[in-house]
Amino acid sequence: MNGLLALLGIESWKPVLTALALPPVPFLLLVLVGARLILPRRGLGWFVTLLGVAGLWLSACSGAGQLLNTYALKPPAPLSVADIADLKNEARAKKPAAIVILGNGAEVLAPEYGVSNLAATSLERLRYGVWLHRETGLPMAFSGGVGWAQRDGQAEAQIASRIATQDFGRPLKWVEDNSRDTRENAIRTLALLRADGITHIVLVTHGTHMPRAFKVFQEVAAGTVRIQPAPMGLAVGSGSRTLSWIPSTQGFDLVRRVLHELLGKWMGA
Q1: By three-state DSSP, how is residue 203 classified?
Q2: DSSP states of 230-254 as a string?
Q3: What CA–CA distance (Å, rounded) separates 263 from 269?
Q4: pLDDT, tens digit (0-9, with 9 covering 90-100), for 50-82
Q5: What is the pLDDT of residues 204-245, one digit of tens each?
Q6: Which residues pair with 97 in a beta bridge?
Q7: What is the value of pTM for the model shown?
Q8: Mean pLDDT throughout 153-171?
Q9: Cβ proximity of 49 and 57 under 8 Å
């Protein structure tokens, strides 16, 4: 599907098409269709309407998002203490390994800072990447340009480079600032790191994004570079089980992120 969009020259439409395919749009359409059917076909009309309402409810429940994440996405486990110790040994032995952090959006202008800033999810990934760098000593790369949904502004990786240096005191070694989606992240980042002889990548992104990102990086690497997943953002909410089935902004965000990843996997993005 990703190739088809490129062939038709409408890759820039991806954010719009994605937004239309994700909740609440499909369920709102179901409600409208059901309402239209109530007069000519009362039973079917009510069924479709209730189906749409149920979809709207569940699409905003963190419980539904957690189930979809666990059984549909199946994110890998986080790095263990032993994994981090092994990475530290690699760094000490000066083996060709690197931490690669994937971006997830930027703010063209953050008024409170007076400059561009990373989106919250990108900043979370950068923070974890910096933490891994500090714990292991492996050098860092950040991948992210100006995404399809962003019309202009500074490349995400350039913003991350500034924040890593100024705010965390941990400069990036590689800055990949031309990619617009996950597949381009993989293609451009692997080309950049291969040029420096890197044969082992520790891939940092959110757990919901990791299955698709890992698959794409594996495909592009084609066995020439070892890809090790380092998912983050895996914490489960501490609220009661009952509350997890009541609509909330957190639940809506989680369900959309999981469905976005499933859609991206189907599209090959």
Answers
A1: strand
A2: EEE--PPP-S-TTGGGS--HHHHHH
A3: 9
A4: 999 999 999 999 999 999 999 999 999 999 999
A5: 999 999 999 999 999 999 999 999 999 999 987 666 788 899
A6: 200
A7: 0.87
A8: 95
A9: no
SS (H, E, C) 118-172: ECHHHHHHHHHHHHHHHHHCCCEEEECCCCCCCCCCCCHHHHHHHHHHHCCCCCC
Distance (Å, rounded) from C-alpha 234 to C-alpha 231?
A: 7
Indicate the angle between helix axes 210-221 and 249-267, nearest 10 degrees: 20
Which phi and psi (to 5°) does residue 149 adopt? -85, -10
β-pair partners for 102: 143
CA nearest neighbour of 35 among 51, 23, 49, 21: 49
Per-chain mean pLDDT for the chain: 91
Place of tokens 């994004």: 209
And the tokens for 250? 């957190």
Using alpha carbons only, give the angle 212, 217, 221 rounded to the nearest 5 degrees: 155
